[in-house]
Amino acid sequence: MIRSVVRGIGSSLPKRVVSNRELETLVETSDDWIVQRTGIRQRYIAGEGETSASLGAEAAKAALAMAGLSPDDIDMIICATSTPDNTFPSTAVNIQNRLGMSHGFAFDMQAVCSGFVYALTTADLYIRGGQARRILVIGAETFSRLLDWKDRTTCVLFGDGAGALVLEAEEGDGTAQDRGILASCLRSDGAHKDKLYVDGGVSTTGTIGHLRMEGREVFKHAVGMITDVVEQCFADTGMSADDLDWLVPHQANLRIIDGAAKKLSIPMDKVVVTVDQHGNTSAASIPLALSAAVADGRIKKGDIVMVDAMGGGFTWGAVLLRW
Ligand code: UT7
Prior knowledge:
Blueprint lengths: L1 E11 L3 E4 H5 L6 H8 L3 E4 L6 H16 L8 E5 L10 H8 L6 E5 L5 H14 L5 E9 L9 H4 L4 E12 L8 E9 L7 E3 L12 E3 L1 H23 L8 E4 L4 H10 L11 H4 L6 H11 L8 E8 L3 E8 L1
Parallel strand pairs: 4-5, 4-6, 11-12
Antiparallel strand pairs: 1-7, 2-3, 6-7, 8-13, 9-10, 12-13
Helix pairs in contact: 3-4, 7-8
The structure holds oxa(dethia)-CoA.
């Protein structure tokens, strides 16, 4: 059986760090409130010339370098983003061009904060279907450009950045001992589409719009949705929380991460947390967190890793893999 194995990972963050204290000068908020309610201490905000494609391309180059591969070796690029450089063409083809690559094919995936989990699952199916051998899976976002900087209920929560990984086909024996993606589970329910959305768009207002969120409503659904898909991945592989080396959740709010880990009986010392450093970077948050945990030596070859996300749509999902 063909498995999709991670060969390399990389990330890229904007130069500018914005602390909670700095936001106190913009809206009526406090470092205390932000830390207590969300766990966020700082976020990176894109400056001039820093875009989803530029950050995504830098992350992709770092992932290729770790894999010891060049763009020539890549068959396909998927970029998960809700903040594309242009309405079209896709951010993925922009990144393809920045990598100096004119073969293969590239497209964007739009599932907001769950985008990276959707992209990873899609890439795995392309590999297992024999359509591609090596795929760059990227999450790249510049949410700062969608925010209403007068709305304290949203502007303190998000940040910019990108992460990327290289997946490669490898023969496995079809058991949970294989390296690579072992299970994945995607869900969505458009009944919740007005709880976290952008109040503009090409086909409606003709404007970009601003992010709007009923935070409490999102919070209410998050833990249940996350634990549901994580448990499905465990059931599909015959594994349990005890088998897990690392849980790498979407980084939206420390209280959501904590609540889901408790419900799943996963101790917090097995959970990778970067929300304090990055804020919520939507589709970029999981590859940024994976990249940090690989760089500092926590995630090692052979480790069992679960990634999960929930966000606008609602969309939610999880992927279980052996690193
Ligand atoms: O990426 C996936 C999608 N996003 C999420 O997962 C986010 C999910 N939601 C959340 O993380 C939380 O709901 C928030 C962090 C957004 C808010 O936390 P909360 O504990 O649900 O607070 P709340 O919305 O119930 O607001 C509590 C109070 C309100 O004041 P009153 O009505 O109690 O007087 C807000 O007006 O906090 C006030 N407030 C703030 N105060 C200081 C809201 N934003 C701020 C702020 N600074 N930035």
